[in-house]
Every structure is written in structure tokens, then in C-alpha cells.
Amino acid sequence: MTGVPETQADQAKDRLEKVKELVSYGLLADRANRGDQREWYRTLLRTAADARDQLRLLERELSDRADAEKILTPSEIAEAGKITRAALYKRREKS
Asked: Rounded CA gap, 28 and 64, in Å?
């Protein structure tokens, strides 16, 4: 079993740090905007969408790499990433 290359680990860590920052911002916005219902919803929805985008990118990068480098089987990737094997195979066709 080999270790994770430093650059790959750093890229994943950077994405997770971005999500952590977004969550921290969301918590601050929650407290700051409780008196303004419209601003509260708008800010938290935007923050949640930004975090979702970062996590989707991370999932895609990890699953594509695990597939391309044959680190995990398609079934293992699908199970861990909560995606279908068909979606994984479609990604292969686009690459």
C-alpha cells in the first residue's frame, strides 16, 4: 500500500479548508442576520451553495483520480461517493 502523493493530499486539504471557511462565514452570517429574515435566507443559501460546489468539485476530483489510477473499483467509488456506477462510466466517456 502506497501513501497519497503530497500534491493530491494538499489539493484535497485546500478544498476542505475552503469549505471550513464557508461554514465559519455561514455561522457568523447566521448570528449577524437573525434580525433580517430576507438577508438571513439569502446569505445562508448562498453560503450553502458555495460549500456544496466545493464539495462536489472535491468528490469529482477524488473519484476521477481513484478511477483513473485504479485505486478503487467502480463499485467502491460509487459506494463511497454515493454516486451510481453509470455516472462514473459516463464521466469516463467525457474524459
From this structure: 34
